[in-house]
Amino acid sequence: MATMIQDTPHSNEPPRVALQSLDSLWFQVAGTICNLRCHHCFISCAPDNDKFNFLSLETCKRYLNEAAALGVKEFYFTGGEPFANPDMCEILAETIKVGPATILTNATLFRDSTLDRLQRINESTPYSIEMRVSIDGYSAEMNDPIRGEGTFDAAMKGVQQLVDIGFLPIITITRTWCGDDGDVLATFRQTLVDNGYTRPRLKVLPSLKLGAEVARTRGYHDDERVTHDMMANYDPAQLVCSSARVVTDQGIWVCPILLDAPDARLGGTLAESLVDYPLRHNACFTCWSFGAICSNVSTAATSTTDA
Ligand code: SF4
Ligand code: SF4
């Protein structure tokens, strides 16, 4: 019988993925600090989790300059909750001088001043700004047991606020149900339309069996690993680590998924991080199974709809 473990590196030499080109740069802009404490959060973000801290405007500018020199094409902001970082809007304003940006948010922390600033930034840039809003069900009954009481109503209000200032947020839903996605997506879409978001975009993500999710469901089985055979006819471009890196307050990590893995730190500069990486973690199995789970790009395995 397979043993259940949270995440243990391979002892045998695993397949390695080369960085084909550094197309995307992620900023762990809120570290692991979040106003919520979701039961499935794969890096266990919470108001009191400062294992990784906020990125400063100066730090972001430094890496934006290095990214521009390296030809990075797009930027992502995550956490934790990006808008918990008081510098988020200033950081975004600097970023869109260099390229398009996506912010992954729970949409529960928008002040009027934040929305005003976002609207002005969005209307002033030739680059696109995408908002990805996490909601894990089409009702409070479905969402709130995972994300916390009142979070469904708060996030739906946040979606409406974003729509009102001109965004078409991508609603990202972690797959916590059994069975077909079709009914869930249809009901979700109708709920959003009924709430005034007439052109909803939805993306379903697999759960990563790390962090808080281990207690909610399970950790990885020890046979959930990427092998050399599995990579034989596989396009590594589907893996985020083949084209992205993530900036944290403690250096550059290989991807936003492995923050808790010390061996995923690749250096202090982007130049130092341009190395290949062994797929030694169990979470790599989820990436291999589902493809581009972090980026805005959809794959056959991550359900995405644009109405
Ligand atoms: S899943 Fe997102 S909103 Fe929930 S605790 Fe983690 S970072 Fe915060
Ligand atoms: S977790 Fe995914 S993105 Fe990170 S190193 Fe493994 S395969 Fe690459």
The helix content, as a percent range, equals: 25-40%
Q: What small molecules does this complex bind?
A: iron/sulfur cluster
The total number of structural domains is 1
Low-confidence stretches: 1-8, 303-307
**At the fourth CATH level, what is the homologous superfamily?**
Aldolase class I
Basic shape:
globular
Head-to-tail CA distance between termini: 44 Å
The radius of gyration over CA amounts to 19 Å
Order of helices and strands: EEEHEHEHEHHEHEHEEEEEHE
The major sheet is characterized as: 10 strands, mixed
Number of helices: 8
The count of DSSP E runs of length 2 or more, i.e. the number of strands, is 14
CATH topology: TIM Barrel
Beta content comes to 15-25%
Looking at the overall shape, the CATH architecture is Alpha-Beta Barrel
Q: Given this structure, which CATH class is correct? A: Alpha Beta
How would you describe what is shown here?
The structure is a single chain. The protein has 307 residues and is α/β, with parallel strands linked by helices. The chain has a single domain, classed as Aldolase class I (TIM Barrel), CATH 3.20.20.70. Helix content is 27%, strand content 17%. The protein contains eight helices and 14 strands. The strands form three sheets. A ten-stranded mixed sheet has the order 12-11-10-3-4-5-6-7-8-14, with helices on one face. Strands 1-9 form a two-stranded antiparallel sheet. α1 runs parallel beside α2. The longest helix has 14 residues. The N terminus and C terminus are likely disordered. It binds iron/sulfur cluster (2 copies).
